[in-house]
Amino acid sequence: MVQERAMKGNDLYQRLLGLENPWRVKEVALREALKPSGRKNPELLAPRPMGLVAGIDPRRLSELADDLEAEALIAAEAKRHYPEKTNDSA
């Protein structure tokens, strides 16, 4: 209810109330939301070193991790010794 009272003073809210077509309401609300803000200099985050090596795409690190995990599993299986089955049931 408090939020409703605050919205009644809002110009956009008043404009949306005057529209009859629900699609038009969505269009106007979306256009208002996507308008550029009045700030001329957006705050940017300072870059920080990630310690990456040339030739490694940081967007594909999870794929690299999957490949390394698969190689480690294959190497571990190759080293593992399974007891041979004997046919002692005869």
Main sheet properties = none
Strand content: under 5%
* Secondary structure tally: strands: 0
**Class by SSE composition:** mainly alpha
Q: Kindly report the average pLDDT value.
A: 77
| Ends distance | 84 Å
Question: What is the helical fraction, as a range of percent?
Answer: 40-55%
C-alpha Rg (nearest Å): 31 Å
Contiguous helical run count: 4
What is the chain-wise order of helices and strands?
A: HHHH
Question: What this model shows, in words?
Answer:
It is elongated, with a radius of gyration of 31 Å. It contains four helices and no strands. The protein has a domain at 2-34. The model has no long low-confidence stretch (mean pLDDT 77). It is an all-alpha fold and 90 residues long.
Topology:
Blueprint: H1 2-8, H2 11-17, H3 22-34, H4 61-79
Highlighted features:
4 helices; mainly alpha; single chain; 90 residues
Can you describe this structure in just a few lines?
This protein is an all-alpha fold and 90 residues long.
